[in-house]
């Protein structure tokens, strides 16, 4: 995902449920809360998901949601995410028989569909349905979703969707079971891209240019019975789904009800009290601070909390276009008090200290620390570097939202120790997101947060450090541009052998940090709350969100 | 001037007000350094994709062209894009939300019943509670009753509605479960459930808003009861109940009606905090969302709708005025 604000909006808007995985052998651990293992749970009952968002647009073409949240249980794609509690997230075949067969040095990817896969009306899913679903995502009225495929597929720049009868030739369907993708350049992460919502099959003629998101055709274990904005969406079983063909969805509850427009404080209270539907519910967003404190203080409620492992990277971006002296940026690396930042973010439950750009839980990550210091920083070293740079008391402008008031002030205080004066400019949320991503870049420092869209170093590094991602609404907040790094990113992206690619990514990670464009602060953790009868609340190493495909009830209600 | 001519004149001036509101909204929105197309661009967003989205939504045009197309859309409808992928918004098109994939008129039609249910019910309750306690306090002036009612009204006026709402939910919906904790049920679907879900929000809003009415009714009643005509009526032996309800209250109600009209009109435009705490998706929540999502068309459409409601409420109050007080003539120049 992106910047913290965008993350919040995206989570609010598009949380998806997925049911993956059946028994992985770990014992069910609901009794002590934070780490629920996988158990079979009960089959049946109604699970409630409480959302603060006011509508659920389920159009797969427009979705930026994770494949394991709101739409995971209704939409299957070519590949899926297999998530285990505290384990590494893997890409596995879903509708297809493999995660993709590369040829032509990784520029062509071929998939064969499984037998026995059907839509909720009983018709068989063909490769043409997947092609049609993807083509829809190019229509001008259906933009807004994750668009990795749009920059990769040949000829996609000039394609405007299937509604005028035109088709995208770089997606071939030689027969009903086979689909072939032709890319502009080799792309090793294509199996992950094929797990995103745009790869959901849509029967031709049944996915209009607008209005499809209310009750779309389902391919997963559930179908949408009703979807009323501001009230609720009800998922009921899709009798044509065959569990044998699905490696990730467990489909425990008979019904999943997404209750919209929930006030998060009221929702968290009702879950804690466990009255009525509260015990069979979970809150899709994070626990609000007041209720988090309340739950942590009460052993009966504590066990209802589930905290993720290391998630999104929170970092201090240094605008390299304005703070051009490497020594000054390195001084900032040493001067920042990560401990104070952690405390301002809510303490240890907010996240662990970060040193690398690739986040834990992502294949290819190598742990290292180029700027070794206490968690409170190394002020002497910082002062010395500033002296060498000939700038003993630089003045820097930090832009922040009102939500970041405390964390921004912790940065201000910690840099002051080394003689760096930070002026904080507080901006309204909308103005802030423009200011940090526009072409001017009128700031020296900004605090960012980044959760990748899929667990690969590509989604971790490329959006934040590739020079093509500066301005224009993109998230290279350090405005970092290094041709060598661009070349490494390109090389890693085009490497099909993933263990080979991983090595290049690790090298890229270190190379970027040597230029000190950002200070990694913490890998933030998310804390969720679920009712006492909710089980299999699995949170893998990636993403820092529960896997809706597996959540179920301990006993059918 | 007859009443129809009066209404006609008021409608003409209202249209001017509405036009000015539209102008103000467009100007404010375009002064913000943000690009609404950005939100629909997708991720990652390339400059080509961004310009495609802007062209489709029409946000690549100067603000006055956009405002012109918006106003024209109200009368002749709008079409975004061309060919098979075009999105059509039929007249009267108050705008189209690309975020919600719905015309603004449809969104308002969906959300207004929720807000109207909350507002009208609460308003009737608070008018009854407020006026009754105000009259009571005035009649028992300077007694314990008066002091207690005044004291309570200070609490009511100053208590934040979100806090009281949250406390009410925790007390009456979660601890002693006599009311649902939120949600809205359509009247047509189940009138009993509709009522059941609305009681708590009505009470919270009514108790908080009644406070102001208690105070104003009390002051007005005390003023009226000390007037010469009341003394005359008393000396003529008119029963006290007639004096209080027929003479004094009728006059005391004039400023109360003005306040009621404005409050009800404003509330119909959306009871933001109440809707939020009780998980009801009304116009207030829609407006709030449109602001945080830079959804200009929803923002303008819903604001215009709310403005029309306030204007209508004022019109009704003025007409009621003339009925309550024969000295007031409509449209007197």
Please tell me about this protein's structure.
The complex is a heterodimer of chains A (557) and B (333). With 557 residues, chain A is an alpha+beta fold. Among the domains of chain A are: 76-210, D-Maltodextrin-Binding Protein, domain 2 (3-Layer(aba) Sandwich), CATH 3.40.190; 312-524, Roll (Dipeptide-binding Protein, domain 3). Chain A is built from 15 helices and 21 strands. Chain A has helices at 4-13, 127-136, 148-152, 190-193, 264-273, 289-297, 299-302, 326-335, 338-344, 379-389, 405-416, 429-437, 457-465, 483-494, 498-514; strands at 46-50, 79-82, 90-93, 101-103, 108-112, 171-175, 178-182, 222-228, 232-237, 255-259, 281-283, 305-307, 313-318, 351-353, 395-401, 421-427, 445-450, 518-524, 527-529, 534-535, 552-553. Chain A has a six-stranded mixed sheet with strand order 14-18-13-17-15-16. In chain A, strand 4 (101-103) and strand 5 form a beta hairpin. In chain A, helix 14 (483-494) runs antiparallel to helix 15. Chain A is globular, with a radius of gyration of 23 Å. By secondary structure, chain B is mainly alpha-helical. Helices cover 71% and strands 3% of the residues of chain B. Chain B is built from twelve helices and four strands. In chain B, a hairpin with a 6-residue loop joins strand 1 and strand 2 (87-89). In chain B, helix 4 (104-139) runs antiparallel to helix 9 and helix 9 runs antiparallel to helix 12. At the A-B interface, helix 3, helix 5 and helix 12 of A face helix 2, helix 4, helix 6, helix 10 and helix 11 of B.
Any chance you could write out the topology, listing elements then pairs?
The complex is a heterodimer of chains A (557) and B (333).
Chain A: H1 4-13, E1 46-50, E2 79-82, E3 90-93, E4 101-103, E5 108-112, H2 127-136, H3 148-152, E6 171-175, E7 178-182, H4 190-193, E8 222-228, E9 232-237, E10 255-259, H5 264-273, E11 281-283, H6 289-297, H7 299-302, E12 305-307, E13 313-318, H8 326-335, H9 338-344, E14 351-353, H10 379-389, E15 395-401, H11 405-416, E16 421-427, H12 429-437, E17 445-450, H13 457-465, H14 483-494, H15 498-514, E18 518-524, E19 527-529, E20 534-535, E21 552-553
Parallel strand pairs in A: 1-10, 1-11, 15-16, 15-17
Antiparallel strand pairs in A: 2-3, 4-5, 5-7, 6-7, 8-9, 9-10, 12-19, 13-17, 13-18, 14-18, 20-21
Helix pairs in contact in A: 8-10, 9-11, 13-14, 13-15, 14-15
Chain B: H1 3-31, H2 47-57, H3 63-76, E1 78-80, E2 87-89, E3 96-97, E4 102-103, H4 104-139, H5 144-158, H6 161-175, H7 191-225, H8 228-235, H9 240-268, H10 272-277, H11 283-292, H12 296-324
Antiparallel strand pairs in B: 1-2, 3-4
Helix pairs in contact in B: 1-12, 4-5, 4-7, 4-9, 4-12, 5-7, 6-7, 7-9, 9-12, 11-12
Transmembrane segments (chain B): 12-32, 114-137, 149-174, 194-213, 256-278, 298-324
Domain ABC transmembrane type-1 (chain B): 112-317
Keywords (chain B): Cell membrane, Membrane, Transmembrane, Transmembrane helix, Transport
């Amino acid at each position: 995902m992106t910047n913290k604000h965008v993350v919040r909006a995206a989570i609010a808007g598009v949380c998806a449920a997925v049911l993956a995985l059946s028994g992985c052998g770990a014992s069910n651990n609901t009794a002590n809360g934070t780490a629920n293992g996988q158990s079979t749970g009960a089959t049946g009952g109604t699970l409630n998901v409480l959302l603060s968002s006011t509508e659920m647009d389920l159009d797969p073409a427009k979705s930026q949601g994770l494949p394991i949240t709101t739409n995971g249980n209704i939409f299957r794609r070519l590949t899926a995410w297999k998530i285990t509690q505290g384990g590494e997230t893997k890409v596995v075949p879903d509708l297809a028989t493999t995660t993709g067969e590369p040829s032509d040095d990784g520029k062509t990817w071929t998939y064969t569909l499984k037998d026995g896969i059907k839509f909720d009306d009983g018709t068989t899913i063909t490769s043409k349905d997947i092609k049609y679903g993807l083509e829809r995502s190019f229509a001008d009225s259906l933009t807004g979703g994750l668009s990795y495929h749009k920059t990769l597929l040949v000829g996609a720049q000039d394609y405007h969707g299937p509604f005028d009868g035109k088709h995208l030739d770089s997606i071939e369907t030689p027969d009903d079971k086979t689909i072939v993708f032709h890319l502009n350049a080799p792309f090793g992460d294509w199996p992950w891209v094929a797990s995103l919502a745009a790869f959901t099959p849509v029967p031709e003629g049944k996915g209009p240019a607008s209005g499809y998101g209310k009750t779309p055709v389902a391919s997963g274990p559930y179908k949408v019975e009703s979807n009323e904005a501001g009230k609720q969406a009800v998922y009921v079983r899709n009798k044509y789904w065959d569990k044998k063909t699905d490696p990730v969805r467990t489909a425990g509850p008979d019904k999943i009800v997404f209750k919209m427009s929930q006030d998060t404080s009221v929702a968290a209270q009702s879950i804690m009290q466990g009255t009525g539907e509260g015990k069979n519910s979970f809150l899709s967003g994070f626990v609000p601070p007041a209720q988090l404190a309340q739950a942590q203080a009460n052993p009966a409620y504590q066990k209802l909390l589930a905290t993720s492992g290391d998630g999104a990277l929170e970092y201090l971006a240094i605008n390299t276009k304005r703070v051009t002296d490497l020594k000054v940026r390195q001084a900032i690396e040493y001067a920042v008090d990560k401990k104070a930042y952690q405390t301002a973010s809510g303490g240890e439950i907010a996240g662990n200290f970060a040193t690398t750009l690739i986040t834990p839980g992502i294949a290819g990550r190598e742990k290292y620390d180029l700027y070794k210091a206490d968690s409170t920083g190394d002020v002497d070293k910082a002062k010395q570097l500033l002296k060498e740079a000939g700038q003993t008391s630089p003045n820097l402008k930090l832009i922040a939202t009102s939500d970041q008031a405390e964390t921004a002030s912790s940065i201000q205080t910690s840099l002051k120790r080394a003689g760096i004066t930070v002026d904080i400019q507080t901006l309204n949320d909308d103005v802030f997101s423009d200011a940090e991503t526009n072409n001017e870049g009128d700031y020296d420092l900004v605090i960012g947060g980044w959760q990748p869209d899929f667990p690969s170093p590509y989604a971790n590094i490329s959006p934040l450090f590739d020079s093509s991602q500066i301005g224009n609404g993109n998230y290279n907040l350090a405005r970092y541009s290094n041709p060598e790094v661009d070349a490494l990113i390109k090389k890693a992206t085009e490497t099909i052998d993933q263990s080979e690619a991983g090595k290049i990514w690790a090298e890229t990670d270190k190379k970027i940090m040597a230029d000190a464009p950002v200070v990694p602060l913490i890998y933030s953790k998310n804390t969720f709350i679920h009712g006492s009868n909710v089980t299999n609340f699995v949170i893998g190493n990636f993403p820092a969100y529960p896997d809706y495909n597996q959540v179920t009830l301990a006993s059918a209600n | 001037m007859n009443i129809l001519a009066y209404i006609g004149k008021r409608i003409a001036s209202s249209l001017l007000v509405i036009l000015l509101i539209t102008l103000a909204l467009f100007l404010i929105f375009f002064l913000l350094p943000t690009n609404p197309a950005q939100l629909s661009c997708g991720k990652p967003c390339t400059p080509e994709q961004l310009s495609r989205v802007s062209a489709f939504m029409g946000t690549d045009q100067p603000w006055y062209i956009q405002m012109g197309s918006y106003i024209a859309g109200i009368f002749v409808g709008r079409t975004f894009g061309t060919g098979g992928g075009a999105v059509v918004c039929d007249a009267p098109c108050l705008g189209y939300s690309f975020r919600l994939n719905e015309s603004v008129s449809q969104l308002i039609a969906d959300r207004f019943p929720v807000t109207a249910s909350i507002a009208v019910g609460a308003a009737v309750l608070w008018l009854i509670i407020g006026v009754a306690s105000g009259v009571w306090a005035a009649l028992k002036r300077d007694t314990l009753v008066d002091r207690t009612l005044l004291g309570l009204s200070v609490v009511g006026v100053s208590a934040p509605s979100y806090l009281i709402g949250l406390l009410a939910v925790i007390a009456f919906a979660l601890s002693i479960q006599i009311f649902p904790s939120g949600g809205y049920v359509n009247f047509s679907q189940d009138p009993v459930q509709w009522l059941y879900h609305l009681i708590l929000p009505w009470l919270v809003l009514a108790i908080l808003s009644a406070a102001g009415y208690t105070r104003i009714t009390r002051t007005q009643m005390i003023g009226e009861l000390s007037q010469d005509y009341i003394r005359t009526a008393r000396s003529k032996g008119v029963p006290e109940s007639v004096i209080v309800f027929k003479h004094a209250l009728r006059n005391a109600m004039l400023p109360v009606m003005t306040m009621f009209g404005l409050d009800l009109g404003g509330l119909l435009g959306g009871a933001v905090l109440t809707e939020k705490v009780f998980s009801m998706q009304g116009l207030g929540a829609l407006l709030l969302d449109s602001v945080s999502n830079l959804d200009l068309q929803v923002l303008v459409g819903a604001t215009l709708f709310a403005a029309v409601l306030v204007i209508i409420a004022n019109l009704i109050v003025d007409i009621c005025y003339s009925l309550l007080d024969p000295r007031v003539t409509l449209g007197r120049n």
